Amino acid sequence: MIREQLMTTIKMAHRYGNGFTREQVYQFLPIKMDRYRFNSMVDALVSTQQLREVQSILLAENVYNSHFRHQLLSRGIFDAYKIYLKVFAHLPWVRFMALTGSNAFESCCHEEDDIDLFVVTAGDRLWITYLWMVLLSKLTNKRKYLCLNYLVDEDHLTVYPHNYFAAVQLLQMRPLFNAHYKEKLIAKNSWIFNELPNMTTQSNTEPFYRLKNDDPIKKIRFHNPMRHINRYIFKTYARRLQKKYTSLIGNSIILRKGEAKLHRVDYSRSYDNHVNTLKRKVV
Question: What DSSP line would sit under 183-218, residue for residue?
Fold first, then answer.
């Protein structure tokens, strides 16, 4: 039933002690639904006290206090590492950066939680940029807190794998500057609409999360030795990571010249179970 699909989506956030807004629930539904019908069903669930709506958050369970506690903690973690993220954002070939994972959902549970980042670089500059970020985070003793989860260059904007988990992560990511790149990413990944048929593409950078003013669009590229250096760094890292994480290569870890997916811990299976459950309930 549609009611069960709504409640299951809402409870997906409750698993992490958080709640979703009405807009999030609508966009995270993996089935197409008319917006008027959706609002009518939510209103009916609220009126019969099967749901509560507190400060725009839909709650099926008592997670209100933990939701705002996690939100404050997440913002505090971002504030603590903001100066280092600003350095990353001002590196010469970084085109776009966004928070993903628990940071994007503002659902961090511990002060020791790290910052999960999605990065877009200039073409043929991904691995040079990655090396700079690794070196800078090591020099400041922040390597374990600044997690470079996914990097692509502007010539390879297609994200893998094409599943519900990846779609939710792309939709929920919080741009730190150049928010228009999020819309470009979604345009290059039209498969997302198969997973999230109710989603919208409009994006902006929230004032709290803005690291710098947006850059002008850069189209000029010079074929200089940096291209060859980038390829050398890629081959070096690929050999190293393939030896260290053999069982993860090709799954949670993807290594290509223009793509670095470095998720050593992959939560996609739990999300896939969720979406499969929802689709089986379609009537």
Answer: HHHHHH-TTHHHH-TT--------GGG--SPPPPP-
Question: What pLDDT is recorded for position 37?
Answer: 93
Distance CA 136, CA 187 (A): 32
Low-confidence ranges of the chain (pLDDT < 50): 282-283
Whole-angstrom Cα distance, residue 222 to residue 204?
A: 30
Q: What is the Cα Rg of the chain in Å? A: 20
Q: How far is CA 251 from CA 162, 208, 255, in A?
A: 12, 34, 10
In the chain, what are the domains? Answer: 2-65+270-280 (1.10.10), 76-267 (no CATH)
CA distances from 211 to 7, 143, 174, 180 (A): 36, 19, 12, 15
The pLDDT value recorded for residue 283 is 43
How much is the pLDDT for 277? 61
Q: 141: which residues sit within 8 A by CB, 6+ positions away?
A: none
The pTM of this model reads: 0.90
Q: How far, in whole angstroms, is CA 221 from its chain's centroid?
A: 28
Pairing mode, strands 146-153 and 259-262: antiparallel
